[in-house]
Amino acid sequence: MSTLLAAIRSLLYIVWLVVTVVPWALAVVLISLFVRGDPVYWSCVGWLRTATLGARLICGVRYRIQGMENLPDKTDSKAAVVLLAKHQSTWETLAFPGLMAHPLAYVFKRELLYIPFFGWAMARMDMIHIDRSKRAQAWNKVAEQGRRLASLGHWVIMFPEGTRIARGQKGEYKTGGSRLAIASGVPVVPIAVTSARCWPRKTFLLRPGMVDISIGKPISSDGRKAGELMQEVEAWIETEMRRLDPEAYLPAATL
Predict the structure, then answer these.
(1) Mean pLDDT of 136-160
(2) Which of 36, 39, 202, 206 is the most exposed place for a label (fewest CB within 10 A)?
(3) Model-level pTM?
(4) pLDDT band at 136 (very low <50, low <70, confident <90, very high)
(5) What value, to the nearest 5°, has the Cα angle with vertex 8 and ends 5 and 13?
(6) How confident is the model at residue 108 (pLDDT cuts 50, 70, 90)?
(7) What mean pLDDT do residues 109-127 have?
(8) What integer pLDDT is reported at residue 77 of this predicted model?
(9) Which domains does the chain have, with CATH numbers?
(10) Are the CB atoms for 193 and 160 separated by under 8 Å?
(11) Burial letters for 34-60: b for 16+ Cβ neighbours within 10 Å, e otherwise?
């Protein structure tokens, strides 16, 4: 596909997001005046599924998943885990809630709450927003809220590299997710995702293709140290990324 055609389709997709998020977010805010919790969450997930569908229909961004059997049984409403995922794109942020059977709680910077409509809806969901400029307070909030959400059976999801990473690259894996799992007494589940094939970071130019998502087996946090647990998660994710997207890791790869 030519860059011009990809740009036109990407622009149409952004218009799709804006046109759909405004009424949807207003509806969520209205609903939240009367109910909270899961009804609000799944109402928001409806828009996120619309966003993922739009990426497929307008821009040709498809996906396939392996390893869903590694997640807790969807009938067990109290089976909590901490999901630790590779982060290459905005795509997985939009897609993951619609793919999982349990409510997800993202840990995210509070500045996102100030985005009109989108941020207003996020503020109505039971998630963990932090002030990154106050690191000690931020961790205390993550630990406190993470334990509370785990007791409800919610799945906390974190991106251990902290930010979107370019295709074929690796960031520094921070131990916040493994510390939370240890503090909450729940396992971690590593996830590899090749979303930068279609939607690279720092751009709204989407290209058609297949996003592969691979979900690893749960890793117990019992008796573990945060550093060694995260090293195991990092080793699995980075090995799996090379299996799913080998051309991205060639020495002279042109991405």
Answers:
(1) 81
(2) 202
(3) 0.89
(4) low
(5) 125
(6) confident
(7) 73
(8) 59
(9) 3-249 (3.40.1130.10)
(10) no
(11) eeeeeebbebbbebbebbbebbeebbb
Please name the residues in contact with 136: beta carbons below 8 A apart, sequence gap of 6 or more.
Answer: none
3-state secondary structure string, the chain? CCHHHHHHHHHHHHHHHHHHHHHHHHHHHHHHCCCCCHHHHHHHHHHHHHHHHHHHHHHCEEEEEECHHHCCCCCCCCCCCEEEECCCCHHHHHHHHHHCCCCEEEEEEHHHHHCCCHHHHHHCCCCEEECCCCHHHHHHHHHHHHHHHHHCCCEEEECCCCCCCCCCCCCCCCCHHHHHHHHHCCCEEEEEECHHHCCCCCCCCCCCEEEEEEECCCECCCCCCHHHHHHHHHHHHHHHHHHHCHHHHCCCCCC
**Residue 172 one-letter amino acid:** E
CB 57 within 8 A of CB 12: no
| CA 68/CA 38 separation, integer angstroms | 22
pLDDT (tens digit per residue) in 209-255 = 999 999 999 999 999 999 999 999 999 999 999 999 999 998 764 44
Residues 6+ apart with CB under 8 A from 100: 71, 155
**Joined tokens for residue 185:** 């007494």
Amino acid letter, residue 76? D
d(CA 197, CA 247): 10
Q: CA of 248: how far to CAs of 21, 122, 205, 210, 242, in Å?
A: 33, 33, 18, 14, 8
Residue 196 clears pLDDT 90, i.e. is over it: yes
